[in-house]
Design a protein that fits this description.
- The chain has 431 residues and is mainly beta.
- It has one domain: Methylamine Dehydrogenase, Chain H.
- The protein has a four-stranded antiparallel β-sheet with strand order 1-28-27-26, with no helix packed on it. It has a four-stranded antiparallel β-sheet with strand order 2-3-4-5, with no helix packed on it. Strands 6-7-8-9 form a four-stranded antiparallel β-sheet, with no helix packed on it.
- A hairpin with a 5-residue loop joins strand 22 and strand 23.
- The longest helix is centred in the first third of the chain and has 4 residues.
- It starts with 8 loop residues before the first helix and ends with a strand.
Length: 431
Amino acid sequence: MPNFRHTLVLSVCLSLPGMGAHATPVLTVLHAFINTDGANPAAALHFDASGNLYGTTTAGGTSTDCEGASCGLVFELSPPKKNQKTWSEAVLTEFTGINGAYPTADLIADASGNLYSTTHAGGTATACPLGCGTVYELSPPATGQTAWTQATLTSFGGAPGELPTAGLIADAAGNLYGTLADTGATDFGNIFELSPPATGKTGWKQSILTKFPKATGWYPFGALLADSAGNLYGTTYAGGASTTCLGGCGTIYELSPPATGQTAWTQTTLFTFTGTTGAGPEANLIADSSGKLYGTTYAGGTAGYGTIFRLTPPVTGQTVWTQTTLFSFTGANGQGPTTGLIADSSGNLYGTTEYGGTAEDGTIFELSPPAKGKTAYTQTVLISFTGTNGANPVSNLIADSAGNLYGTTYFGGPAKACEYPGCGVVFELAP
């Protein structure tokens, strides 16, 4: 069975220091995009050991290869040098359509510092107007060089699957796993594996592990989570057995590796959302040490503005997972979470909402476990975006060892070069 390196998400997300009580959290814009250096970041950031941040923007750059506009890029943001205050940005690669377009997904890195992710469009396939998406690798400069090297590992092409929106996870053998939002056929998304070239070969091998018909979910937009046994977990935005939402309210699924001597993976629907329990989950899941899964839904709940939920594994002798809605957003405290969660060592959960808050430009929130003798979780809005400091965050947060949170907003910032006020920002939130 696969031995996943990136199952660390199960423990790392829950090993952050407890951030404790908050006075007034301070938000700092580390970088505001101005279009030529990137625009509209939709993916989470990635830290390296030196404290540099890496990310993608869905648009921006200098190319005009995507219908006369830019196709997006990968950037690096380096901390201020001694006696300076400004972070410096470098564009590592620009997409040109043929090598990918519109990157919306998080980056992962291997031990050598190579970065891997997907682009939502682009590539060599002609089944989609601008290409059906790619998986790419970005390698650091060789000794004495300055340029990063971008390689397309695969171009998706219609019926086998197309239009990835989420990032990848990897196992110890270097196989990459991800989701495709559509299949270009009768099903509505699938999960794929991309295997490194065999000895003496150069091409990566793509395999489809499972497809999603309506009954088991539509549109797996979120990234995968793997446990130590190699089982994969994720969400679908729509579909499932519930008829409360048009097209279904979405599901949580598990995909189990083939049994000994078998080749087929087994897909199981763990929970189907009903609207009141949530609707439209777009993001990845996280898990605690007991195997409970945590995530968000974009809509549904008591006010229809989205939820935070927990899914608890069956007790011994049972088969049914138990869903609990931990919190329903109401608008003023956030609306429409498109992202997953991170957690600290005290069990507090942190995330963002695309809308809501005092200016309706989105929020960063904390959800704290019930106090002793209580049952209700407590939600706190840590910051409301106001446009100039960012607007509409749609990416996951990351945290450093001091408990500072980092992320991006799709819009906002001072630049006027983008269609909507501001091209997006990279921010830090200090507790």
